[in-house]
Structures are given as structure tokens and as C-alpha cells.
């Protein structure tokens, strides 16, 4: 298999609110808007963030058509996590999970967009378990 692109598609009740949150606070840009569907990206993420209206008639699998994007974490690995935390707070974004460092070296915090999509910003302050070179 050769993967040529990747996307995360999320069902949300208010596409405009999620798109504005991703644009304003996370630096995504709108690449396509077709009816109510919005596709966004950042040149450094390697994926498209696609926002779909909950209940879209063409959504598959149909058993998930009416579900919202709850229980999903969109994780962005960043440099300068403490600076990002300060920036997000200064923009008035409510912090879902305050910044903390896990014993395995993951320093992170979480914010939630108006539709309940949780974005987690992470910086590895030590190499993650299983990283190349570990145990050498």
C-alpha cells in the first residue's frame, strides 16, 4: 500500500464554529468549501481536517451518520509547548486539560472547540518509548 494523502473527517453540528476555531487558534487554512463541507489544512500536519455536518445523507457508514465527533482527540505534536500554552491562554481559549508532563516525557495540554472536538498539543520533552536509538 502506498498512502498519498490522509484526512481526519469529523461530524460536527456547527461547521463554521469548528472551522473558525481551527483557523483562529490552530493555524489551519480553508482549502475547500462545498455546500456545508469544509476541508482545512496546515502545511506541516500531513493531513486534511475535514468538517462534515452531523447527519450528512451521504455519510458512510450509515450507522455513524448521526454521531458527532465526541471522544476523538486530534493530536498535534509541536515545538515550544509552553509558548503555545501561553499563546492559547492569551487568546482566551478555555483550557480543557492544563499543561502537564507525563512520566514518559509527553508534555501536553488540551483545548476543546465549540462542537466538543478536543485538540491536544504535545511536545516530547524526552524521547517517546520505542523511539529510534532508544536502548542503544
UniProtKB/TrEMBL annotation:
Residues 4-124 form the VOC domain. It comes from the Bacteria. Transmembrane segments: none annotated. Gene3D superfamilies: 2,3-Dihydroxybiphenyl 1,2-Dioxygenase, domain 1 (3.10.180.10). InterPro entries: Glyas_Bleomycin-R_OHBP_Dase (IPR029068), Glyas_Fos-R_dOase_dom (IPR004360), VOC_core (IPR037523). This is Glyoxalase. It comes from Halostreptopolyspora alba.
Amino acid at each position: 500500500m502506498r498512502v498519498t494523502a490522509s484526512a481526519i473527517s469529523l461530524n460536527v453540528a456547527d461547521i463554521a464554529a469548528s472551522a473558525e476555531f481551527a483557523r483562529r487558534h490552530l493555524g489551519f487554512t480553508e482549502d475547500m468549501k462545498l455546500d456545508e463541507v469544509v476541508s482545512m489544512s496546515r502545511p506541516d500536519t500531513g493531513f486534511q481536517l475535514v468538517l462534515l455536518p452531523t447527519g450528512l445523507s451521504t455519510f458512510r457508514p450509515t450507522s455513524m451518520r448521526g454521531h458527532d465527533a465526541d471522544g476523538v482527540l486530534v493530536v498535534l505534536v509541536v515545538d515550544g509547548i509552553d509558548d503555545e500554552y501561553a499563546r492559547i491562554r492569551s487568546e482566551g481559549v478555555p483550557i480543557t486539560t492544563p499543561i502537564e508532563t507525563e512520566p514518559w516525557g509527553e508534555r501536553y495540554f488540551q483545548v476543546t472547540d465549540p462542537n466538543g472536538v478536543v485538540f491536544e498539543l504535545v511536545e516530547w520533552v524526552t524521547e517517546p518509548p520505542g523511539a529510534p536509538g532508544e536502548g542503544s
